[in-house]
Write a structure and sequence with these properties.
Blueprint (H helix, E strand, L loop, with lengths): L9 E8 L5 H12 L5 E8 L11 H9 L2 H14 L1 E6 L9 H8 L4 E5 L27 H5 L7 H17 L5 E6 L2 H9 L7 E3 L19 E4 L8 H15 L6 E4 L5 H10 L3 E5 L3 H10 L2 E4 L10 H7 L4 E4 L4 H4 L6 E4 L4 H13 L2 H18 L2 H12 L5
Parallel strand pairs: 1-2, 1-3, 3-4, 4-5, 5-6, 7-8, 7-10, 8-9, 10-11, 11-12
Helix pairs in contact: 3-4, 8-13, 11-14
């Protein structure tokens, strides 16, 4: 495999870490690793927590840099020169990276490849979520709902400020430096085309997955598993409501729900677990404990009420040959085949989710295993590393020779 910089075009990956590690950071790491098959990769990563340090710019300095950070621009220019970079590969850039990177790319006549993990650069918060509903108007840069919901860093003032940053970016023309957009689902691609991004510049490339579990005979201990951030848009309240319905209908025959995660809804989950012996709350889980939970569950849940960009929880379930019960929302509609690899329910509809659980419970064990096997086959066929690498190289080659 060739790896020298002289033989492979160089891409500079740019990513601003969030205050809490999440799926986008993990995806950026995998992309950096897998792209090395055909490209020489360099990276410049910032960390949002750097602005909390004693030597960080003051509040006024941070405010100016949110709109345009000359420090980031200088770092990018230096690395482009040192490594003969042919394109910038961008993920999240806020707050430290700032829109200065698009302006820098324009000045250097360097193409930008922008990954779309969520709905930036249109949405103030990123997920397009306004507290209790999807803020569709934000895709037209009408941010009132997100601002009032304090969508960015829990502050109405900061959200209003960030709205100005996005509007200035769109008005500046700097986004013209983005020659290629990569959406992680067809759903996101469609929404960005509707927002005005030229269809011939935006491509779909779902995340890949390296099969971790090759055991075809994993146990089914009968419980259902929710592993996600405990925030309103992820639908944990829908899952809790569905289990209240199931307990009323099934009584002692109601299956168990295990919830793992942390977030603003944690107290509600804890209260539900204390009130019912059919709900168990574990808090944050990771590593071998997380793997054990997935391997032994009956099915995994993704009751999202926002427009889920893709949902890697589906990949985790399929890796262990487990069916998915998920809302028919966003990218979840593309990875879950209703009736074949799991069941869809109407977003936000707890009774519909409860019905999905009952449908799965009514199936014989062999039929449930067949659903898990179908998901595992989907993962192998649709999310292999080689498929991702070939597709990524084809996409990047449209702007990098």
């Amino acid at each position: 495999m060739p790896s020298s910089q002289t033989r492979n075009p160089c891409l500079l990956q740019l990513f601003n870490r969030y205050r809490e590690r999440g799926g986008e950071e993990q995806s950026a790491e995998r992309i950096f690793l897998h792209a090395q098959r055909d490209f020489h990769m360099e990276r410049l990563w910032w960390d949002s927590r750097d602005w909390d340090r004693p030597d960080a710019p003051g509040k006024l300095g941070q405010l100016r840099r949110l709109f345009y950070n000359p420090d980031s621009a200088r770092d990018i220019t230096r690395l482009v020169d040192e490594h003969q970079v042919k394109a910038l590969l961008c993920h999240n850039i806020y707050p430290i990276g700032s829109p200065s990177l698009y302006h820098t790319a324009q000045k250097l006549d360097l193409p930008v490849i922008q990954y779309l993990h969520n709905f930036r650069p249109f949405s103030v918060g990123g997920p397009l979520w306004a507290g209790d509903h999807v803020a569709e108007q934000s895709m037209r840069l009408h941010h009132r709902e997100e601002i009032l919901a304090a969508a960015w860093q829990g502050s109405i003032f900061k959200s209003a400020l960030f709205s100005l940053v996005l509007k200035r970016l769109h008005a500046s023309g700097w986004l013209d430096s983005v020659k290629c957009w990569i959406a992680i689902s067809d759903f996101i691609r469609t929404k960005f085309i509707e927002a005005g991004i030229p269809a011939d510049r935006i491509h779909t490339l779902r995340h890949c997955w390296e099969i971790q579990n090759t055991n075809p005979d994993l146990p089914d201990q009968g419980y259902y598993l929710y592993l996600a951030r405990l925030i309103p848009e992820k639908g944990v309240a829908v899952a809790l409501h569905a289990w209240r319905i199931l307990e009323e209908k099934l009584g002692p025959a109601c299956p168990k729900l295990i919830v793992g995660g942390t977030g603003s809804q944690e107290d509600n989950v804890r209260a539900a677990a204390e009130a019912s012996d059919k709900i168990e709350f574990l808090g944050f889980v990771e590593g071998t404990e997380k793997q054990r939970l997935i391997e032994n569950c009956r099915a995994m849940l993704a009751p999202s009420v926002w427009w889920e960009a893709l949902g890697l929880v589906t990949y985790e379930a399929y890796d262990c040959r487990k069916p998915m019960l998920a809302s028919a929302s966003g990218g979840l509609t593309e990875t879950i085949q209703d009736g074949l690899t799991g069941f869809h329910h109407q977003p936000g509809n707890a009774a519909d989710l409860a019905h999905s659980v009952q449908k799965l419970e009514s199936l014989p064990p062999d039929a449930r295993r067949a659903m898990g096997e179908a998901g595992h086959r989907w993962l192998i066929e649709e999310a292999s590393q080689s498929h991702w690498q070939n597709r990524f190289t084809d996409i990047v080659s449209t702007v990098v020779s």
